[in-house]
Structure formats: structure tokens, C-alpha cells
Fold this sequence. Notes:
Layout lengths: L2 E6 L3 E6 L4 E8 L3 H18 L3 E9 L7 H14 L4 E5 L4 H12 L6 E5 L2 H9 L2
Parallel strand pairs: 3-4, 4-5, 5-6
Antiparallel strand pairs: 1-2, 2-3
Amino acid sequence: MSLQTLLEAPHITISYDHSDQWLLADWHGDQNLASVQHGALEMLRLMGQQRSHKVLNDNTRVTSMWSEAAEWGGQVWFPAMTAAGLQYFAWVYSPNVYSRLSTDLTLQFTGTDPVVSTFDDLETAKAWLRGL
């Protein structure tokens, strides 16, 4: 994996994997509406900059509920990502049950595009993205 760090913020690190040609979003710590929106909009900007069609979204280190961002994520952000070229989104759940619920709620607000699949571990998510 040849990772190039594109953004480091208190709540998210975004990198581009040149080998696999996907954007990697590594979220960490407590999240809320403001942190999710900031990180998500940076993902949108950087995905377009890298011309990537795949995202590996790692919530493994998220430690809180962030459900106040669910509707915005599903109805505003995912459509914007799709319009920018996103086709496949691998979402790795946090072990925190409240974060998992926030992920599932976001997906209830999300349409059929892009293709989103959820995973319990990073390696399975990577294998899925590589197979596309």
C-alpha cells in the first residue's frame, strides 16, 4: 500500500492509496455534526482532486454516536459524492454500538448510488474494493 496523506485533522485523516487507487478516510475519536460535515466535505474535495471512484471509509476508531449527521450524509453528501464520480464505498464499522447505529441510520437515508457495503474489519473491506 503506497499511501499519500492528503489531510490530517483532529477527527479524520484522509489519504490516497496509489496502488489500489482509492481514497482512504480514517475517522477517529468522538464525532458530531460539525466534524462529520467537515470531514465529509474534505473527502468530496479530495476525491475529485484524485479522480477516484472508490472510497475506503474506516470508522474503526470512532468512539461516539454521530446520528445528527445521518440525514445530511445520506441525502446531501452521498448524492454529491456520486455526482463527483463515486461508484463504490466500503464502510468499516466502528466497534462502538452507537457509531454503528449512526452508520446504519445514514444508510437508511442513502439512495441506490453509489454502491455501499459495510464491513466489520478493514481487510475484508479492502478485498471487496479490490474485486471491483
